[in-house]
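During the second half of the funding period, the structural biology subgroup turned its attention to how the target accommodates small molecules. The most pressing case was arginine, which had performed well in the primary screen but for which no bound structure existed. We therefore specified the complex as follows and requested a full 3D prediction, including the ligand pose.
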Amino acid sequence: MNLKDKITELVKKSAQKSGIVDTDRLVVSFSNVPNLCDYQTNFALLVAKQLGKKPIDVANAIVENLQSDENFEFSAVMPGFVNVKVKTPQLDEFANAVLKDKNLGVEQVKEPRLVFFDYGGANVAKELHVGHLRSPIVGEALKRVHIAMGDKTLADVHLGDFGLQMGLTILQLKEDGYLDAFFKKGADIALLPIENVTLDVLNDEYPKASKRKDVDKEFKALADEYTLHIQQHTEPFYTIYKKIKDLSVKEIKKNYDLLNTTFDFYLGESDAYPYIDETIKIFVDKHLARESEGALVVDVAQEGEHIPIPKKSPDEPQRYKNPMPPAIIKKYNGGDLYATTDIATILMRNRDFHPDEIIYVTDNRQSTHFKQVFRCCKLAKISPKEQKLTHVAFGTMNGKDGKPFKTRAGGVVRLKEVVGLLIDGAEKKLASNGIVGDRELARKIGVGAMKFGDLSNTVDKDYVFDIDKFLSFDGKTGPYIQYTIARINSILSKANFKDGVVKIESEEERKIVIALLKLISSYQVCYDSYSLNSLCLATFDLASAFSTFYNNHKILTESDAERKENMLALCKLVKASLEKALWTLGIDSVEKM
Ligand code: ARG
């Protein structure tokens, strides 16, 4: 079904027939001049010099052998390109094959792998804020790209559920009298409800404690102690912790639901805790760890990384190219083991699942952390050689001022507030279309708008949260794609369409099928680049090709029954392909809007 492979094969054979032995550098790609041709190759330009010929002569010789091909039209153009146009019957055949295919033409990986995803990263007892938005958005979409291409996936939210924030929260709650019952002698703590501690209480208590720890040394020391009690399952701390965690996780799930983000596991840092001692022992036994200022560290720098950068003046401190600091796997006070926890988590995941790849989606400030963790795992063979460890590092979501998105007062924006803004905005838009009172529809549109706006950028870039732009019903936006689907729904239901075949009769229909070819191939691009921008762009291009067709052709009033059926089949194909693309991006399709 893959036309690009078909063309590559034909050009290769023809090149060989014309005497070119080495065709390794032959690449066929989509054309940059879509009005002239659909595909193109610069192969002749690459090999001409070596052959001692003019590029155009090489291109002509290749094209010469392909004059009578029934599926493609080949032509040689200056300075030495081979242009390829797909003949219409071949496009029809392709479109109808896609229509029948359960994967809608999206090519499946040859050997499916098990890919484990780690994204979300919410922290128990702390409220999700705007900084937690991109991980579920990007992570969920990347996971779905893998699903769409036939890999097996598992996803874990990897809760921050064992750190100092838990000790701080419990200490503050205790001081404010919420936990008296738990600390009474002889209390049956397992049965005690923690009802007086609500989410609102947690949202007040943690920030309060967090501020206090910076100025009150005693308070901080006690919170450290509490944290250790939790980690060592000492009562009543551990039971209180579990109750708070349950409460908090329920809320976290609700937030992820709003974002169409689902996980196979709600595991957390605490689940890796039983593996921490073993992990440290592995490094010690393999002589990979050394003591440094009372801590245990692993040197992870690699050859060539500590090259000194020449000083511009003698009193400048010596700096090094790409220095990679050692990973700290144990601190002198035993606390805060972020790296060790991630290493132990890999140990655990490898025992339980043996994934072929583990993909982490976090912001780019964690890049060094993950490099260290990955290197540690490879050094200690906790991760086998053939296992791929990938950190997908995303940029910051900024406000219109180009600085990280904040509230008007300069505070941190809660994730729920952002979603609220999007839903309100979508509701207003819908109202102008005469649809009122459908909050769930507004959520689908509002959240879809933000996701499409986010994913349209390459993942590593910062981008601006511009709600008006995201929510626009035309342009490269989520609502525009949803609107196109809704419009097709209406056509198909009015026509009472069941089944039919595609038969291209116009240039507009031809452009749709070419856009579909590009959309299908963009899945692989996303898969390889760990970024969703090419899928967003290709989805928009297909929707826009459809709009052009729709504006220039009367479908419902077409009098030739067969022609009408052919056009409706094309509508159905576009709808299914757009829906699949939106699903992959983690965006809902809507029936009408
Ligand atoms: N909980 C962390 C945070 O809020 C993010 C966790 C990222 N994932 C990981 N495996 N370390 O920053």
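Two results from this model are relevant to the next phase. The two ends are 35 Å apart (CA to CA). The pocket of arginine is lined by residues 118, 121, 123, 158, 160, 342, 360, 362 (CB under 6 Å).
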